[in-house]
């Protein structure tokens, strides 16, 4: 049952990653990390979670930094908000796909709180930045009892609500390698309305010339809201790598993407509608990327 208020909990504003790890080790499930709180506070209000302590990690050093380097690419602190990410000049110049994904999340007001890291750590199959993270082949930077480690986006999403973040770990940043030369990308989102709704289907498409592909061109596709976790439909990407780009190949790949989806019926849409929309949005995304190259 929906409750009208938040339960009682202790609030800790963490200042060092090691402090966070120690708290998680000591308190286990009774401690919960928070950044923007747009997912977490709703779950606390609804009684889905009952932590004794909420650990605010957004003020840790570097958590709100965005850095760009020609070699290393883009490093986005986990607590960078969607609006800050979308407004950053280097992100706009080099990663327009990420700008589209960030701007598709909820409403402007919510994007002032909602963070990139929170969106990914929530483990929602519908997370709008997840398809972009997949096709840009992002690396998640985690900090835990053994120090730092990196997890590829492809290995990060495990199941609804579950990611590769360990019980005593936190996400500190997301690194996006420099996109392949000449890459173009788009994120297409279908929701029940234009503002503030989770996606029924989300499709990211990234395309770039690649001499190692038989077709001379490669496309990466990322899907949200159509399976227990965000995914890349490998069969669709193989069709695109092996056949000359154009309408026939795009239609075949969009069909393969649809067949790679395993959606469910829920309040937002039926599984059958979602499957069909994967086909439609993938086809649309492939055309847009190809025409804009
Ligand atoms: C009205 C509304 C509309 C929404 N619309 C959309 C939408 O269109 N698209 C979309 O994708 N999402 C949407 N959301 C969901 C949410 O806003 C986003 O997922 C947001 O990006 C979450 O970020 P946050 O900083 O608020 O996360 P938080 O709520 O602070 O945290 C999210 C989860 O991550 C964990 N966590 C926090 N920090 C860390 C860390 N450093 N390391 C590991 N785990 C951590 C928390 O414990 C929690 O489980 C919507 C939510 C609301 C309330």
How is this structure best described in words?
The structure is a single chain. The chain is built from twelve helices and 13 strands. It is of the alpha+beta class. Helix 2 (40-45) links the parallel strand 2 (31-34) and strand 3 (53-56). Helix 10 packs antiparallel against helix 11. The model has no long low-confidence stretch (mean pLDDT 95). The structure holds flavin-adenine dinucleotide. Flavin-adenine dinucleotide is lined by residues 32-40, 42, 57, 78, 105-106, 110, 113-115, 117-119, 121-122, 126-128, 165, 170-171, 196-198.
Give the helix level as a range of percent. 25-40%
- Hetero ligands: flavin-adenine dinucleotide
The CATH architecture of the largest domain: 2-Layer Sandwich
- pLDDT under 50 segments (min length 5)? none
- According to DSSP, the number of beta strands is 13
The CATH topology of the largest domain comes to Uridine Diphospho-n-acetylenolpyruvylglucosamine Reductase, domain 3
Over the alpha carbons, how many angstroms does the gyration radius reach? 19 Å
Main sheet properties = 5 strands, antiparallel
The CATH class name of the largest domain reads Alpha Beta
With strands numbered from the N-terminus, the spatial order across the biggest sheet is 4-5-10-6-7
The figure for the number of domains is 2
First CA to last CA: what distance? 50 Å
Number of helices: 12
Portion in strands: 15-25%
Q: Average pLDDT across residues?
A: 95
């Amino acid at each position: 049952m929906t409750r009208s208020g938040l339960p009682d909990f202790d609030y800790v504003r963490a200042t060092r990653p090691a402090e966070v790890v120690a708290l998680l080790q000591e308190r286990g499930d009774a401690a919960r990390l928070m950044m923007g709180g747009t997912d977490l506070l709703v779950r606390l209000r609804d009684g889905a979670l009952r932590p004794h302590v909420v650990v605010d990690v957004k003020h840790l050093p570097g958590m709100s930094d965005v850095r760009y380097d020609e070699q290393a690419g883009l490093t986005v602190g986990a607590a960078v908000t969607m609006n800050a990410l979308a407004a950053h000049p280097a992100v706009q110049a080099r990663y327009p796909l990420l700008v589209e994904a960030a701007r598709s999340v909820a409403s402007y007001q919510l994007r002032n709180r909602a963070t990139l890291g929170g969106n990914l750590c929530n483990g929602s199959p519908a997370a709008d930045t997840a398809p972009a993270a997949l096709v840009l082949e992002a690396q998640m930077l985690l900090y835990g009892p053994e120090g730092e480690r990196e997890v590829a986006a492809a290995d990060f999403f495990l199941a609804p609500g579950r990611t590769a973040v360990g019980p005593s770990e936190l996400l500190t940043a997301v690194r996006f390698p420099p996109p392949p030369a000449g890459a173009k990308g788009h994120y297409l989102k279908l929701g029940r309305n234009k503002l503030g709704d989770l996606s029924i289907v989300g499709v990211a498409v990234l395309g770039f010339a690649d001499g190692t592909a038989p077709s001379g061109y490669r496309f990466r596709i990322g899907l949200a809201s159509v399976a227990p976790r965000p995914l890349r439909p490998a069969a669709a990407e193989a069709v695109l790598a092996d056949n000359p780009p154009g309408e026939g190949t795009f239609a075949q790949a969009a069909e393969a993407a649809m067949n790679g989806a395993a959606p469910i019926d829920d309040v937002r849409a039926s599984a059958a509608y979602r499957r069909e929309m994967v086909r439609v949005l993938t086809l649309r995304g492939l055309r847009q990327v190809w025409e804009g190259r």
